[in-house]
Specification:
This protein is mainly beta. The chain folds into nine domains: 46-191, Galactose-binding domain-like (Jelly Rolls, Sandwich), CATH 2.60.120; 204-330, Jelly Rolls (Sandwich); 343-480, Sandwich (Jelly Rolls); 489-605, Sandwich (Jelly Rolls), CATH 2.60.120.260; 616-740, Jelly Rolls, CATH 2.60.120.260; 742-861, Sandwich (Jelly Rolls); 874-983, Jelly Rolls, CATH 2.60.120; 1002-1123, Jelly Rolls (Sandwich); and more. The chain has five helices and 101 strands. Strands 1, 2, 3, 4, 5, 6, 7, 8, 9, 10 and 11 form an eleven-stranded mixed beta sheet that branches. The longest helix has 5 residues, at 299-303. The model is unreliable at 1-40 (pLDDT under 50).
Length: 1262
């Protein structure tokens, strides 16, 4: 804290006025003599309504002229500047800061402030439409001018004759507050020119006049009498350029816009009156009518029409022409309107079928209804029809549905793009036909509730983005709910143990013999059918005293035990990101046993998760190219590398990410950090929205950060060299994320009266006036702490007058002062545990002072805290432990220890306690624990729920220490208490439990020795060895050595720190092998030498100056460490054979005998060792590999459970049939290990099997 701000209160004798001061010590001064407090007059807004008069030309008819409303019509005749005026103003207006105008109607007006002397008037011009608007005229800098104002004047349709209109003003007042909302300044004028005005009386309003380009100069428009000839050439990027005829008037009497046109055959043309009010036709070379129906528009929306737009060859490139013969509005018009029948959902049915399909307007799709099916034939002749579509309109609230099932038969290898649309966003899914009737599931759970409530269309694109012809049959398209009945497909893992009787419920009978304690039943799901479903609801009934263990996804973290106490049903609910299976154990860990239970129901559904404002959704690995031959996307560990090669015609080829609403709901901010070649350009287009898009031109090799906010994100498109083809290039996406931002930039208020005034617009402009004694008055942000709970980061951007300063203070504790430079915004970022306060001091410690600064943005968000520093030891002895199942374990802190007591039933042998760390421990690599318990009892301690880190401790009655070394961030610790012995009650102590960082590698503990004797004198000082030598001729190659003791198989790197006399040399030879040998020439300074071995280090030999031949000298070995360094990923072309090399995890159970290239595995287990396993841990970095293929052979009926990466997601069960059996495992993470459990469910205690082969490889497309 640069300056300690001290707040104190001085109670004045009169007025009870509290004054905040600060940044200086309190000084005792005599109490001042009280003086009377003057009465300050209260200034209120000044209303200008009421008492208005026509200026004398008889142009204005005032229908309402009260203090709450001024409504008038005008007919200008030959008086272009006829006016009306307010009553004379005698009030001093200099105290006011704005003039507020709320107006609607049809027309235009000039609003003038006139003075009592020759001072020029100030004025604004307003285009008045049927949509009410409020304008706040900023007059803060006009105090002197306002002191002279004595009249407000209105000139309707300024400068025009024969103009009519109606205007309704409901607010016209001078305000004491600063302008906010839609702020305008002196001289503002939005009155259009070149406009066709409706006279208010004609039955037909002809606007076939004054046609002009809307934005781009695409159209060449030539008037020919009363007609207009139009030609155009539209290049890439100008497909949607338009022309317009501006209109103005009261259009409430009109229901149709009619444009009669003749144009280039085959080209589409669109006439548009307002958003969503348009008509598209295909020109045929003859005169045609384009009729736009206005009848469903609200009257105010009709009056808000300001132009009629025409899009020639709409949405396409190319050249063409058309002639506008007539263009008019009319009340009634006879024409044959196209019949588009909507599919109307009643809001209650659990399913909803879609019919009524139509061509999208390009006349590409021939649609024939046959009963309830649709035969669709299509022909797309050229690039203009790449995105021609067919559609079905929807009406209703579809938020109760979870999916749409499309049942379609199409020609093999032909493609179709399925798309649903709503004003709030779209989603699309590409599918490929296989020639048979297929069901394509369109997941709606990835869309937001707002999108589903407003679904209005299903769109189909055949051969999307391409040309061609073909046909397909739509058998059905059906909306369905999320609830999915999965009470079927049950099977007994061990044949004959479980049998099933299906009906309205499923009755399960089981008979388990000795050794079948863990025999189970299961049902597996098709991933595509259950995609997005995150909740399992299971209702069971059974015999009192019996139990069933339910294990969804074969995941111990999800398992629950159902204990029946009576005949009543028991309901359990399980939530997971996805479901692949349900496994159930009747009377778990008990055999022999017989019994029955009933599965009343088993349902998968989607339940929305509560919004987490701290969620940061990273999507840099999710980019997909529209065409893989154009964009090559390589996802790397720290970035995504993109190269592209665009051919002619690929101007707007893209790559994109589509978001699932269930993953990103509530996230309103997107940030992409991208790096490219100077001079190259990319376009980033969130939500496929032009309003959000940004072109980025790289100027150097520095990364560029793109940030945008939206209510929700459904997709983001990225274009390399947008609009250019052919083109080649590359860029790197360094990061891409969605997160939540709370924008609080409109919540700034002054803490002390008359000190800070905030003018809100796109930014917050702060004007301050500090009197003497107000050195520490401040501006505060009036956010509600409860509404930003969980957010931990404040980002504020400010700009101000060069040389002036502000202090930003967070939570009344953290502060930073900045001094502004000219035209240079400054961004400050504060990361705190929680956000409780935010204030700003302008020119802190200085008064009197006046000035202004701009708060460009103020945002609260959550940013992932950096990993805990390595020097911090995290003690979790007493905190964070929980009983996973509940009701089994209790935790009692006692003298700094944690005493854990437990009471289990026989089915709860594997119930566990856990501690999930709530901080990022990526910088840590070690867990140290000290425990103590009853002699003979056991703990299985499993860091990160990984078997690779698991250790078993058998208590000996003393304090026992365990160290777990991890090669990944510590995330959790699970402890299973005496599961094999099966004790049901007891206790143990956690004496200490800590997470820490231990420097990789271990100091070599063995000593250096003179190999020959009598040559080297070796003195050890701590861990430093001083080596002196005296050699005679012929002893040049005499050496010292260090032979390691113990298991060094986990190391592959030797690091030595040496220092010796400059110019002398050592030859260092790890493992006495030339391939690892290095020669070191001393520099006189300390030198570090690293040796990377491809085998286990066992010893080091050092030859001292053998080539130069010095006979005497000395040097120091300051450190010798062994460590493991992750090797570079093995090339994906190299297969890894791991048929041999397996180890027995527990020891004394498995033996391995190589036989004719196979590995014959024999085992002998005792009761309780059913789940003892063997494992293979890969030494190579296999990040480039994705497939494990194993061939095994064993005794009929015996089983293996094979578990790559110790992950249930990859696990497979093998039941031997006496032949060689092949199993393939496809992994989404690097292969690290494979565990094999041998016949654990059947419980055989002896036996053999063969690993015929075991290979790790890379398989494209796997």
């Amino acid at each position: 804290m640069k300056n300690a701000v001290k707040l104190f209160s001085m109670l004045l004798v009169l007025g009870l006025l509290f004054v905040i001061v600060g940044c200086k010590p309190a000084v005792e001064t005599p109490e001042p003599t009280p003086t009377p407090t003057p009465t300050v007059p209260v200034v209120t807004d000044f209303n200008v309504l009421g008492g208005w008069m026509d200026g004398g030309d008889g142009v204005y008819t005032l229908t309402t002229n009260t203090t709450s409303k001024l409504e008038f019509s005008y007919a200008k005749d030959e008086f272009p500047y006829a006016y009306m005026s307010s009553a004379t103003i005698t009030e001093d207006l200099s105290v006011y800061k704005k003039l507020v105008l709320t107006v609607e109607g049809s027309g235009t007006m000039l609003l003038k402030l006139e003075t009592s002397d020759s001072t020029p008037a100030k004025e604004i011009g307003i285009n008045v439409t049927g949509i009410q608007g409020t304008y706040e005229w900023n007059l803060m800098a006009s105090s002197a001018f306002l002191a002279k104002v004595n009249k407000v004047v209105i000139i309707a349709a300024p400068g025009k004759e024969e103009s009519i209109g109606t205007i309704n003003i409901t607010q016209l007042k001078f305000g004491v507050d600063v302008a906010s909302g839609f702020i305008i300044n002196d001289g503002f004028n939005n009155i259009p020119t070149n406009v066709n005005e409706y006279n208010g009386t004609d039955e037909i309003f002809n606007f076939n006049s004054k046609w002009e380009n809307f934005a781009e100069e695409t159209y060449v428009i030539t008037q020919d009498g009363t007609e207009y000839d139009v030609s155009f050439t539209k290049a890439a990027g100008f497909e949607w350029s338009a022309m317009q005829s501006r209109v103005q008037g009261n259009f409430t009497a009109f229901n149709f816009v009619v444009v009669k046109v003749t144009g280039t055959a085959g080209q589409p043309i669109i006439v548009k009156a307002a958003n969503g009010v348009e008509t598209r036709i295909i020109l045929n070379g003859e005169m045609q009518e384009v009729v736009v129906d206005l009848s469903e528009m609200a009257l105010a929306d009709k009056n808000a029409i300001t132009s009629i737009l025409i899009f020639g060859n709409a949405g396409r490139t190319g050249t063409g022409s058309f002639t506008i013969h007539e263009a008019f509005m009319v009340d009634d018009y006879e024409y044959v309107a196209p019949v588009i029948i909507k599919n109307e959902y009643n809001g209650t049915d659990l399913t909803f079928d879609i019919h009524n399909w139509y061509d999208g307007g390009d006349q590409v799709y021939g649609i024939t209804r046959i009963a309830d099916e649709y035969l669709v034939e299509y022909s797309k002749p050229d690039a203009n029809f790449h995105w021609s579509y067919m559609f079905a309109n929807l009406d209703g609230d579809f938020s109760g549905f979870a999916k749409i099932e499309f049942e379609i038969t199409g020609v093999e290898n032909k493609t179709l793009l399925l798309k649903v649309e709503s004003p709030a966003g779209v989603k699309e899914v590409p599918v490929t036909f296989d020639g048979t009737k297929q069901v394509f599931v369109f997941d709606l759970l990835t869309m937001t509730t707002a999108q589903l409530e407003q679904l209005n269309k299903i769109v189909l694109f055949a051969a999307p983005g391409g040309i061609g012809s073909g046909e397909f049959t739509i058998h059905s398209v059906t909306f369905k709910t999320s609830d999915m009945d999965v009470n079927s497909g049950w099977s007994s893992i061990d044949p004959g143990v479980y049998t099933f009787t299906y009906g309205e419920t499923t009755v399960v009978n089981y008979t388990k013999t000795a050794g079948q304690e863990w025999s189970a039943m299961r049902t597996d799901f098709v991933p595509a059918e259950v995609e997005g479903l995150n909740t399992l609801t299971l209702v069971l009934k059974g015999t009192a005293g019996k139990s069933v263990l339910v294990k969804p996804n074969d995941n111990g973290a999800l398992e629950q035990t159902v204990s029946f106490v009576d005949a009543m049903p028991v309901t359990i609910t399980v939530t997971a990101d996805a479901f692949v299976s349900i496994i159930m154990f009747g009377e778990p860990n008990t055999a022999p046993a017989t019994g029955a239970f009933e599965i009343v129901s088993a349902t998968l559904s989607y339940v929305p998760v509560d919004f987490d404002p701290t969620l940061v959704y990273m999507f840099n690995a999710a980019w997909v190219a529209n065409s893989a031959t154009i964009y090559d996307i390589e996802v790397m560990q720290d970035k995504t590398m993109v190269t592209y090669n665009k051919l002619a015609g690929n101007d707007w080829e893209w790559m994109r990410v589509q978001f699932d609403a269930k993953d990103t709901a509530g996230l309103n901010t997107m940030t992409i950090v991208i790096k490219g070649t100077a001079g190259k350009q990319v376009l980033i287009k969130p939500n496929d929205s032009g309003a959000l898009e940004q072109f980025i031109t790289f100027t150097d090799e520095n990364p560029v950060t793109f940030t945008v906010q939206a209510a929700a994100f459904t997709s983001v498109y990225l274009f390399g060299d947008p609009g250019v083809a052919p083109a080649t290039g590359s860029f790197e996406i360094l990061s891409a994320s969605l997160y939540y931002t709370a924008d609080v930039n409109d919540l700034w208020v002054q803490n002390d009266p008359d000190t800070y005034a905030v003018v809100y617009g796109e930014t917050a402009v702060v004007n301050y006036t500090k009197a003497a004694g107000q050195e520490w008055v401040f501006l505060k942000n009036n956010f509600v702490p409860g509404e930003v709970e969980g957010l931990n980061t404040i980002k504020i951007t400010l700009e101000g007058t060069a040389g002036k300063s502000v202090m930003v203070k967070v939570n009344n504790s953290i502060e930073e002062t900045i001094t502004f430079a000219a035209d240079t915004p400054v961004t400050l970022t504060f990361m705190v545990e929680s956000i409780t306060g935010l204030i700003i001091f302008a020119e802190p410690g200085t008064a009197p002072a006046t000035g202004s600064f701009e708060i460009i943005s103020t945002e609260f968000m959550y940013m992932t805290p950096p990993p805990v520093d390595t020097d911090v030891v995290v003690d979790f002895t007493l905190t964070g432990w929980v009983d996973n199942d509940g009701g089994i374990y209790t935790f009692t802190p006692t003298d700094g220890k944690n005493v854990v007591s437990y009471t289990k039933t026989s089915e709860q042998a594997w119930a566990f306690i856990k501690n999930v760390f709530d901080m990022d421990l990526a910088n840590h690599n070690t867990i140290d624990m000290v425990v103590k318990g009853t002699i003979g009892a056991q703990l299985i301690i499993k860091p990160n729920d990984k078997g690779a880190f698991e250790q078993t401790v058998t208590f000996d009655g003393t304090e026992q220490s365990l160290r777990f070394t991890l090669n990944e961030a510590p995330m959790m610790v699970l402890i299973f208490v005496d599961p094999i012995n099966g004790s049901l009650t007891g206790s143990f102590e956690i004496i200490s439990a800590k997470v820490l960082y231990v420097e990789p590698g271990v100091e070599v503990a063995t000593d250096w020795v003179d190999n020959d004797g009598g040559i080297y004198t070796i003195t050890k000082d701590g861990m430093v060895y001083d080596i002196d030598y005296v050699k005679t001729a012929g002893q040049e190659w005499a050496f010292i050595k260090n032979e390691f003791v113990g298991d060094m198989s986990g190391f592959n790197t030797i690091t030595m720190v040496l220092q010796g006399e400059a110019g002398k040399q050592l030859i260092i030879k790890p493992n006495d092998k030339n391939i690892f040998e290095q020669t070191v020439t001393f520099t006189g300074a300390e030198q570090t030498i690293v040796f990377t071995l491809t085998e286990t280090p066992v010893k080091i030999l050092i030859f001292v100056d053998p080539i130069l031949g010095s006979l005497t000298g000395s040097f120091e070995i300051r450190s010798t460490k062994l460590s493991y360094v992750e090797p570079a990923p093995l090339d994906q072309e190299i297969d890894v054979n791991f048929t041999q090399g397996w180890v027995d995890n527990d020891g004394g159970i498995y033996t391995f005998t190589p036989t004719d290239g196979k590995n014959v595995v024999s085992y002998t287990k005792t009761a309780g060792q059913e789940w003892a396993f063997m494992k293979y841990t890969f030494e190579d970095n296999l990040a480039n590999h994705n497939t494990i293929t194993m061939v095994v052979k064993g005794t009929n009926g015996a089983q293996l459970i094979i578990k790559p990466n110790d992950s249930g997601a990859y696990e497979q069960t093998v039941t031997f049939d006496g032949t060689e059996q092949t199993f393939t495992f496809t992994l989404t993470t690097a292969p690290m290990n494979v565990l094999i459990f041998v016949d654990p469910i059947n419980g055989s205690l002896t036996g053999t099997f063969e690993i015929v082969s075991a290979i790790v490889s890379y398989e494209p497309g796997a």
